């Protein structure tokens, strides 16, 4: 009898909870905070942005590509950034179109790879561990660099780089110490691409955006895989 009474009392409450109208949370962002980072003249604004914890304090910092270099912006931890950026000029750079952040030398600190739009160079800057970077390694890829990606193209567990420039696709094998060697060069009818393992074989492939109403896919055909 007690159980029956309890069920009758709880049922309306349960129905009220289930049938109550669901209210979606209102997602809002605050007023934009702008930072004048004093990019070099002729920079045309920031062309690319990479986010990572560069100085090891657990806070995401930012790296921006500008006219002839990369600017590092340190997060203060309260939602604001320092107004004194660290600027790294890149020799022969002319419009850094793409910046990527990843640990290329496996020391636990995010490094940078940057692609020059007009200068035709690929730059790799290794993190000193405190948010500063050493002198860049420079790899020539040809005029008008457009696309830059990273992935594991030979299944050795070490990040490689792939860059497109003026109809040519260059793949750079990562040695694990922050340096790279040119592995292959091929023709490419596209400038921009994404990296992913499309067929589940453990090797990263390439696919591009729509070009002339078609989607281009380049499957990785590496036959000799490097040992870890």
Element order, helices and strands? HEEEEEEEEEEEEEEE
* Strands, count: 15
Oligomer: single chain
Number of helices: 1
Radius of gyration: 24 Å
Strand order of the largest sheet: 1-2-3-4
Instruction: Summarize the amount of helix as a percent range.
Output: under 10%
Low-confidence parts: none
Strand portion, in percent? 35-45%
Largest sheet: 4 strands, antiparallel
Structure description:
There is one protein chain. This protein is mainly β. 8% of the residues lie in helices and 37% in strands. The chain has 1 helix and 15 strands; from the N terminus they run αβββββββββββββββ. The strands form 4 sheets. It has a 4-stranded antiparallel beta sheet, with no helix packed on it. A hairpin with a 3-residue loop joins strand 2 and strand 3. The termini are far apart. 33% of the residues are buried. The mean pLDDT is 82.
Task: Identify the notable features of this structure and list them briefly.
1 helix, four-stranded antiparallel beta sheet, 228 residues
């Amino acid at each position: 009898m007690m159980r029956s009474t309890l069920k009758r009392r709880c049922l309306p409450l349960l129905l009220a909870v289930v049938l109550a109208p669901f209210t979606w949370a209102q997602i809002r962002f605050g007023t934009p905070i702008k930072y004048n980072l004093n990019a070099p003249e002729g920079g045309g604004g920031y062309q690319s942005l990479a986010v990572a914890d560069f100085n090891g304090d657990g806070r995401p910092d930012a790296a921006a590509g500008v006219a002839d270099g990369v600017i590092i912006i340190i997060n203060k931890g309260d939602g604001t950034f320092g107004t004194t950026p660290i600027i790294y000029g890149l020799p022969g750079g002319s419009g850094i179109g793409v910046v990527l952040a990843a640990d290329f030398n496996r020391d636990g600190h995010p490094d940078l790879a940057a692609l020059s739009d007009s200068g035709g160079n690929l730059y790799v800057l290794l993190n000193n561990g405190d948010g500063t970077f050493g002198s860049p390694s420079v790899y020539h890829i040809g005029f008008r660099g457009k696309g830059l990606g990273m992935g594991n193209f030979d299944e050795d567990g070490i990040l490689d780089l792939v860059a497109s420039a003026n109809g040519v696709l260059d793949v750079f094998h990562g040695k694990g110490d922050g340096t790279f060697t040119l592995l292959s060069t091929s023709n490419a009818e596209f400038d921009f691409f994404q990296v992913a393992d499309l067929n589940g074989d453990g090797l990263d492939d390439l696919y591009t955006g729509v070009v002339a109403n078609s989607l281009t896919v380049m499957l990785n055909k590496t036959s000799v895989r490097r040992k870890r």
